[in-house]
Design goal:
about 25% helix, eleven-stranded mixed β-sheet
Length: about 700
C-alpha cells in the first residue's frame, strides 16, 4: 500500500498561519498586556494529538513545536478578570485545525497566570526556515523590553514578586484605612505629599476593584492586571512611605502623630540619601550601565545663566540679556514720576502674582535667611540625554540641600511647653544608649544619620568645656557620645544638667565635624535644646570635616525663659556675594524646572525662584548637580552611585552663574520682603505664603 502524500495546501495551512498572526495583532492592537500561564499538559502534544493520525506527521515541525511550547500559553486578562488566549481562536481557524485550536484555547484559559510577559525579541517564533513558513507572530515596538538593566526573563521573575507583594498588601490593609490615607495625602497637609498621590490613588482603585469579588481566581487575575500596569515600587506598598502611613493609621496612632512621623521620614536631609559607601563592584557595574544609557555627558553639570532659561514668570527689563547696552536704563516716559512710599502690605504669592507682578518694572528682595539661597544648574554639554522626570536639563539645589525646608543656620523656637514638639527620635536614641532625656534644667541633644563622628560641645559659665575628652564639668554631663569608631548610622549625643543643678550664666553649644565619614555627601544634623521646658531646634549641614558651628548661645537664669544671643554661620551670605538684611535687585522670577514644560511634575516640588543680580555660590557647600529624587525611574539601579558622584563632583562655572538667588516652596512659609516699583510707585510687600 502506497502512503498518501499530503499537500499542506489541502488543509489551508497558510491560512492557519495567517489567522494566528491576524488574531494576535487584533488582540494586542489596544496595548493589551500579555501574561504567561502555568499548564501541566504539553501544549504541543495536545495540538498534534488533535490532528488526523494519518496526516499529523506532515505537521511535526520543530519550529512550530518550539513556538507552541514557548508562546502558546500567552493570555490577556479582560477587565472582568477572565482569561482569554492571545494565540488560539478556533472561530477563525481553517476547519482542519479547529479542534486542535479549540483544545489549546480551553487548556490555556483554564490555567493560572504565573507572570507578566516580556520579550527581548520582535518576533515570537521563527518566521521561515527550511524553505517554508512556520507559526510565528510579531510584537509591536512598544511591547519589546526597553530596559537597559534587565533581560525579559528577569522582568518576568520580578513580576512574580510584585504579585506576591501586592496580594499581601490587599490582604493586609482595610479599604477604609486606604481611603483615609488617600484623603490625608490629597489634603496637602503632608510635606510634599503630592509625590505619593498617584501611588495612593492607584492602590485605592485596586482595593476597591477587588473588594467585592468573591471568586478567588478572578481576584488573582485582577491583581495580575494591576501588577502589569503598576509603576516601579507601587506593588511593594507595604515597604513604602504610603504603606507606613496606612499601617500607622490601622495601629491607632493619632493623625497628628502620623503627620509628624511622616515629616521626619520625608526630611530632605534623609529622604533618598545613601547611607553606605558604594562597593567597588557596584561602581564597576554602574560604569558599564552609564555607558549603555549614554548619559556620561549628561552627568557633567554647570551653573545656569539667565540666557539659558527658556521661560520666565517675570524678568526685569534692566537685567543682562546678553546685549552690549542691556544695563543702560532708558527713559520710558517723557517725564519723571515721583516715587511714593506706602506702608508695607502683606499678601500671598498667588495674589501678588495676579495683581502686582504684571505691572512691576523693578523688584528688589530682602536677603534674610540662608536656607532660601538656591542655584539653578544645567547640562555642560548641550543636547545630552535627559536625566530628570521632566523634559529639560535643568535642576536646582538650596544652600541646605534639595529643599529650602532645611534651615541652615536658623532656629525654630517653640512658644509653649507642649511636649509634642520634642524630637521623639532623639528621645528614643538617647534612651536606647542609656542617657537621660527628661527631668533636666538644660539638655542639648544632637542627632545625625551616618557614620561621621560629630562632637557636641558646651562652654559652661565657668569657662570650662564639656566634650568627648571631658564629659563632666560640675553637675553638667555628656551621658551619650557616639561614633568615635563609626559604630552607628543612627547616632546621637547628649549633654545635660539634671533638675535644680544648672548654674546661672552663659552657655554656648557647638557642633564639630571631628571625623567625616560621609563619602563626600556631607552630613546633615539636628540639635534640640530644652531649657526650662522650652524647646529650640537647629538644623545644620557640614559638607566636609574640620568644620564647626556654634548652634546655641544664651544666658541662663533659673525659672526664666532664655533669649538666644545669636546664631553663627560657617557658610553664609558673603559666600553668595550677598549682604544680610540688604535688598538685592531681582533680575528674573521663574518656577522650578519641573514646572516649565507642558506636563508638570509637581510631585518633585512646587518652587518659585527669585534670581538676584550678582548672586552666585562660592561656598562649595551643599551644591549638587542633581538629587536622586529628581532622576528618572530608569536610574533606580544605580541611584547610590549617582548620589555619591554628584555629592563629590563640583558644578562647573560658578563665577559665571547668573541664575542664583532665593527660593520658596509651596509647602513652607515665605516671609519674603519685596520692594516693588510699578508706575513710579515704590511699595514694600511681605509675601507670607504661597496661597
Amino acid at each position: 500500500m502506497v502512503k498518501a502524500i499530503i499537500n499542506l495546501e489541502n488543509h489551508h495551512y497558510d491560512n492557519f498561519e495567517k489567522s494566528i498572526k491576524d488574531d494576535f495583532a487584533e488582540i494586542i492592537k489596544n496595548k493589551k498586556q500579555l501574561f504567561k500561564v502555568r499548564i501541566s499538559t504539553d501544549l504541543w502534544e495536545a495540538y498534534i494529538d488533535a490532528l488526523d493520525p494519518n496526516e499529523r506527521q506532515q505537521y511535526k515541525c520543530s519550529c512550530c513545536r518550539s513556538f507552541i511550547r514557548k508562546y502558546g500559553d500567552l493570555v490577556i486578562i479582560d477587565t472582568d478578570g477572565r482569561l482569554k488566549s492571545a494565540i488560539w481562536h478556533p472561530a477563525s481557524a481553517p476547519s482542519y485545525f479547529k479542534e486542535a485550536v479549540g483544545n489549546l484555547k480551553l487548556l490555556v484559559e483554564a490555567s493560572r497566570v504565573t507572570s507578566v510577559f516580556h520579550s527581548d525579541q520582535r518576533h515570537l517564533g521563527k518566521v521561515m526556515s527550511g524553505g517554508r513558513h512556520h507559526l510565528a507572530v510579531a510584537l509591536p515596538e512598544s511591547y519589546i523590553n526597553q530596559s537597559v538593566w534587565k533581560k525579559a526573563n528577569q522582568l518576568m521573575i520580578e513580576s512574580q514578586k510584585d504579585f506576591e507583594q501586592l496580594s499581601a498588601a490587599l490582604n493586609t490593609y482595610r479599604t477604609e484605612s486606604v481611603a483615609t490615607i488617600k484623603a490625608l495625602i490629597l489634603s496637602d497637609v503632608l510635606y510634599r505629599g503630592g509625590r505619593f498621590s498617584d501611588m495612593i490613588s492607584w492602590f485605592n482603585q485596586v482595593i476597591l476593584h477587588v473588594e467585592n469579588e468573591t471568586d478567588l481566581e478572578v481576584i488573582r487575575h485582577l491583581t495580575w492586571l494591576y501588577v502589569a500596569e503598576a509603576k516601579s515600587g507601587y506593588c511593594d506598598i507595604k515597604k513604602s512611605v504610603v504603606g507606613a502611613l496606612i499601617a500607622d493609621y490601622e495601629f491607632g496612632i493619632p493623625i497628628e502623630t502620623i503627620i509628624q512621623r511622616y515629616n521626619e521620614k520625608l526630611d530632605p536631609a534623609n529622604y533618598m540619601r545613601i547611607r553606605k559607601k558604594p562597593s567597588e563592584e557596584e561602581v564597576i557595574k554602574a560604569e558599564g550601565l552609564v555607558g549603555k544609557l549614554g548619559i556620561t555627558d549628561s552627568l557633567k553639570r554647570r551653573y545656569a545663566k539667565l540666557e539659558d532659561i527658556p521661560t520666565f514668570m517675570w524678568r526685569s527689563r534692566y537685567s543682562d540679556n546678553g546685549n552690549v547696552f542691556s544695563k543702560i536704563i532708558t527713559q520710558s516716559r517723557p517725564f519723571e514720576i515721583p516715587r511714593l512710599r506706602v506702608p508695607i502690605k502683606t499678601m500671598t504669592w498667588k495674589k501678588f502674582k495676579e495683581t502686582v507682578l504684571p505691572k512691576a518694572t523693578n523688584i528688589e528682595a530682602k536677603v534674610e535667611n540662608t536656607s532660601r539661597l538656591m542655584g539653578l544648574v544645567t547640562e555642560s554639554i548641550s543636547n545630552s540625554k535627559p536625566l530628570f522626570q521632566w523634559n529639560n536639563a535643568f535642576s536646582w539645589y538650596y544652600h541646605g540641600g534639595v529643599d529650602g525646608k532645611i534651615k541652615k543656620g536658623s532656629q525654630s523656637v517653640k512658644i509653649s511647653d507642649d511636649s509634642s514638639e520634642k524630637d521623639r527620635e532623639i528621645e528614643r536614641r538617647i534612651q536606647v544608649a542609656g542617657g537621660k532625656y527628661d527631668d533636666n534644667d538644660i539638655r542639648c541633644s544632637l542627632r545625625w544619620e551616618n557614620y561621621t563622628d560629630l562632637d557636641l560641645q558646651c562652654l559652661t559659665p565657668k569657662g570650662k568645656q564639656i566634650d568627648f575628652s571631658r564629659n563632666k564639668v560640675g553637675k553638667g554631663k555628656m551621658d551619650v557620645d557616639m561614633n568615635l569608631m563609626g559604630e552607628s548610622e543612627m547616632p546621637v549625643a547628649n549633654i545635660r544638667w539634671p533638675k535644680n543643678t544648672a548654674a546661672n550664666g552663659s552657655y554656648c553649644f557647638t557642633v564639630v565635624n571631628y571625623d567625616d565619614r560621609s563619602n563626600g555627601s556631607g552630613t546633615f544634623y539636628k540639635v534640640e535644646l530644652e531649657v526650662e521646658g522650652y524647646i529650640y531646634h537647629y538644623h545644620g549641614y557640614f559638607p566636609f570635616d574640620d568644620m564647626h558651628e556654634h548652634v546655641f548661645e544664651f544666658n541662663y537664669e533659673k525659672g526664666r525663659p532664655i533669649n538666644l544671643i545669636g546664631v553663627y554661620h560657617n557658610l553664609g551670605y558673603s559666600d553668595w556675594n550677598l549682604e544680610i538684611g540688604n535688598f538685592k535687585t531681582v533680575n528674573a522670577i521663574v518656577k522650578s524646572p519641573n514646572l516649565w514644560d507642558g506636563k508638570d511634575a509637581e510631585e518633585s516640588g512646587n518652587h518659585t525662584f527669585f534670581l538676584l543680580d550678582g548672586c552666585h555660590d562660592k561656598s562649595k557647600g551643599k551644591s549638587r548637580g542633581f538629587f536622586n529624587e529628581m532622576l528618572r525611574s530608569d536610574f533606580k539601579e544605580i541611584n547610590k552611585i549617582l548620589e555619591a558622584y554628584t555629592a563629590s563632583t563640583p558644578i562647573q562655572g560658578a563665577e559665571d552663574a547668573t541664575a542664583c538667588g532665593l527660593g520658596f516652596s509651596k509647602e513652607s512659609t515665605w516671609d519674603l520682603t519685596l520692594k516693588v516699583t510699578a508706575d513710579g510707585l515704590e511699595r514694600l510687600i511681605l509675601i507670607d505664603r504661597f496661597d
